[in-house]
Amino acid sequence: MVTTLLLAFALMLVIEGLMPFLAPRIWRETFRRVTELSDGQIRFIGLSSMLVGVVLLTVFR
User: Fold this and answer.
1) Does the pLDDT at position 41 exceed 90?
2) Which of 4, 41, 52, 57 could pair with 37 as two cysteines, CB 3.0-4.6 Å apart?
3) What CA–CA distances, in Å, run from 9 to 15, 16, 20?
4) pTM (predicted TM-score)
């Protein structure tokens, strides 16, 4: 179980690092726009992301 969690974490880091590595200007502009969102909008994005992740885990497990 621990190995699976570490592998998932490692994969997340690789995926998270792709955009800043491949397109730093676009990533910076996107990050700037996100900082201008309200707390409610950021929470909605986070909740949506978690729900999509749970659905994908359920479907592919």
Assistant:
1) yes
2) 41
3) 10, 10, 18
4) 0.71
